[in-house]
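Example record

The entry below shows one chain as it appears in the dataset: sequence first, then structure tokens.
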Amino acid sequence: MTPPPRAALSGGLGERAARRRFVAASFLFWLPVGLTMAPMVLLFTERGLGLTAVAAVLAAHSLTAAALELPTGGLSDVIGRRTVLACAGVVDVGALLLIGLGTTAWVLALGMALMGAARALSSGPAEAWYVDTVQAHSGPDADLRTGLARGSAAQAAALALGTLAGGALPWLLGLGPDTAARLGAYTAELVLPLSVPVLVGVLVEIAFVVHVLAALREPPRPTATLRGVLRGVPGAIGAGMRLGARDTLIRRILLTAAAAGTALAAVELLSPGRAAGLAGTPESGAVLFAGLATAGFVCSALGSHAAPLLARLAGSSERAVLAGLATGGTGLLLLAVTVFSTGAPALTAAATGYALVHLGLGAAGPSENDLLHRRVDSAGRATALSVQSLALQLVAATGGLLIGALPAGPLPWLLGAAALLAGAALWTRRTAPAPGIQAAAGPAAPVATGATGHGGGVPG
């Protein structure tokens, strides 16, 4: 039997077209996340929730995302990338509507849980679609790093733009003398100025769903059955969990994700208080931190965009990961040093350290994923990405608890720096080339996609 041409396997898309569509999908999904970052906690407080209730509502997001991370990755490997991505967008539309219009704690918690489910559904399928499409069109040696870098840069740019817009929209609406009163009167008190960025995110999310269904074409898959899905997803999850045990390179990637989780937990937990200390008051510190957060996303985008150049200058993806993590660790050390100083020099040093952390992590990410995608095949690609994301999230949660329990001062920052530098040290020795691309899903997952019993992944 004559095998189908590569153009058919890639849905007729070349590398550049696939890259553009992947970048657009990355930007559209993450823009609503950025829009909600600035007003979220203030909106919950405005709805009458106390700090304990706000923490519980936010926890609903994290717990749901962590619980569904692996099942949704396995689902994407079984039934297809586009279907799962479209479901992520639809679930996020419902989540944003509940958050933007909800007035009680349980409704807001449900909205955050749905947002966590959407986050888990979106973790991996778009990137897996891009890699599948490019490798189907150009072969397993196709350039992946450029597209992965631009996708990461698009995510960071969307977060930066969304954070700015999400903070500015309620402020602009507040300039009118009766804007809040009119919004309340027209919407039965459901819409507040702080709700507007969240509801704008609904429109962006709808555009994301339309883009996914129209642009992210996949070759036909065997019709999925409920029995097939129930058999295939657990197999994909189990094989994903075994990835690190059987492959040294993948184990390094997962340990690196854990190191990055610890570093990010330190930055997220400690930066607001440090900003307030440098600015002099909590109010001024909030403004300073908003600016730092936006600058951090911009630096992450710049680092991601520069990742292919860094890999070429360093000589390999592995050395590029080493250089990126070392840069981030240096930034955390600089943040630790600023604890002992105040004034303009301390502010400059802190801003430089903050920028280096995000620049380094942004530069390391695309090269890490380039290595990961060359180690696994289409049948388990989304699952592998979900395992990587889960490693980061779980260690970030536990690392955050440990960092929060440490005494104030340089020690919490140094813990994050030590974790990131230890992650960099993992890449000082080259890994032997894999004997061949291995299927992360193992023999169990391909059974799942339909009555034919054939795998549904796009051949690489």
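Notes for this example: The chain has 19 helices and no strands. Residues 1-10, 435-460 have pLDDT under 50 and may be disordered.
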